[in-house]
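Case study.
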Amino acid sequence: QVIRCRAAVAWAAGKPLSLEEVEVAPPKPGEVRIKVVATGICRTDDHILEGSFPDVDFPVIPGHEGAGIVESVGVGVTSVKPGDKVIPVSLPHCGECSFCLNPESNYCLKSHLSEPQNLLPDKTSRFTCKGKQIHHFLWVSTFSEYTVIPEYAVAKIDAAAPLDKVCLLGCGFSTGYGAAINAAKVKPGSTCAVFGLGGVGLSVVIGCKVAGASRIIAIDINKDKFAKAKELGATDCLSPRDFKKPIQEVVTEMTGHGVDYSFEAIGLADTMIAALASCNMNTGVCVMVGLADSGSLISIDPMLLLSGRTWKGTLLGGWNMRDCIPKLVSSYLEKKFNSDLLITHTLPIAKVNEGFELLRAGKR
Ligand code: NAD
Ligand code: ZN
Ligand code: ZN
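After joint prediction, the assembly is written out as follows.
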């Protein structure tokens, strides 16, 4: 039962995606084949196309922010069955390794941070195109109409969930929202600064608002992002280009001693340092969310940390995705947050490169 379907394949770094007919092999034991119904485009997918995401072998099918329906399951799969709605998770949870056994950890030693996920756990691929093996990305590869992933990287969600909306919970929304809720633990009445207002940064704004922040300063060089940021809860919007002095000084002056929580959702060394310096020097917490190019380094004045600040990073907002994504979907259905406001365009898979052009132009 090989399925032939369309997929967007990245044949080499630096090239646009090409829409191809691919063959998707049936799931092996412990694997699930999913019909992908909708997928978002996250900046991280662009990092792959640029060749700046570590440990990615080409050709590869990117995409990691999707939602779909289980088509078939391999031997031994018990947690999902054909017809179930699911979100593939880019941070798996095997339930057995030392990270999985630690309740404070949100991912598994089988994730891409410990070992490449260009092939499924048995070191083979389920994708072929024109006789060539195509690599998986983070095991999820949602830019294919069908994909095969290990059962422990699948989260079953409510059958009532609209897949074209909740796909955002597979990465961008959950990352930004969780950065505020889990990583920073934003308190009611606090002040926040969010650097970068893409899908991730805007989701941080939503998280800060839901957590009860009284002031949310949203920062981006693209002022077209400000209207949406305000709609989602930002109280002040700043472009660093409007000031002669560094933006961290502007934020510090605006708030007296810096914000309680700052977030970097861009992925540049300079803005990471600016975000760190924008939170108050003693109890401030800065959460790094943006993904810097592999190999980049940061140098900072150690006093920034010595005076008491906390600087931390987060992957996927700290959620243990397999357990938490279904709960986030329930919160979405209960209208606890409105992630639909993050959707700017809906395109067919054939226009995936146009989607990337929109992302690069900041129109997302
Ligand atoms: P995006 O490209 O949509 O948004 C980035 C925003 O930053 C844009 O609005 C852009 O105008 C703005 N920006 C760029 N340079 C700037 C500067 N110098 N000063 C101020 N603003 C600037 O990206 P996204 O999809 O929202 O993702 C944001 C980052 O988060 C990316 O680096 C992505 O790889 C990363 N990411 C990390 C995780 C994680 O688990 N930690 C998950 C998803 C995405
Ligand atoms: Zn992502
Ligand atoms: Zn594990």
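Observations recorded in class. The CA atoms of residues 97 and 109 lie 6 Å apart. The domain at 3-172+318-361 is CATH 3.90.180.10 (Quinone Oxidoreductase; Chain A, domain 1). We will return to this complex in the next lecture.
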